[in-house]
Amino acid sequence: MKNVIILGASGNIAKHVIDILVKKDDIDLTLFLRNKNRLKNTNVSKSRIIEGDVLAYDQLKKAIAGKDIVYANLSGALEALAKNIVRAMKETGVRKIIFICSIGIYDVPLKPVLEPYRKAADVIEASGLEYTILRPTWFTNADEVDYETTRKGKPEKGSVISQKSLATLITKIIESPEKYVHENLGVNKPNS
């Protein structure tokens, strides 16, 4: 049984991840979000729901304790959020994190809107944790699973990725957390 916590569980990508994970008997799922009324999933009866704020360190640390995998699906003050997550994981002995960033965070010059994503990625990479950073292209609502990845340092490809595709990749990493350890991957639809 893997103990998984989703931070920012009301997000669009998280919704798809939850829909996949709730069907798996070997996943003990905890959903962490500020307001449980924002959950878009209809089937969360097997999940534990915790209302809290990632910036509220004590709430976060308590929620993360005992988990095997942290999947962070966040927006806002990303650098501060990343620092809190890393600190909580280190203090509770949790090793694996999947962190969603953005395409373009290694472009020069860096667009100001992407600076928080870059800073958060830098925090995660320097953490010493078993991280997987995903840098998706723009999201679509297409009902398809079709993606490819590019490693950090290689030119990013594509312009779009379906939310369902990204969620599928995330769940594969959760199912096999030894894959993509210390990886920082661009994710896109091939030929997009």
Automatic annotation (TrEMBL):
InterPro entries: NAD(P)-bd_dom, NAD(P)-bd_dom_sf, Polyketide_Oxido-like
Pfam families documented for this protein: NAD_binding_10
GO molecular-function term, one example from the UniProt record: riboflavin reductase (NADPH) activity
Protein name: NAD-dependent dehydratase
Domain of life according to the entry: Bacteria
Coiled coil: none
Span of domain NAD(P)-binding: 8-177
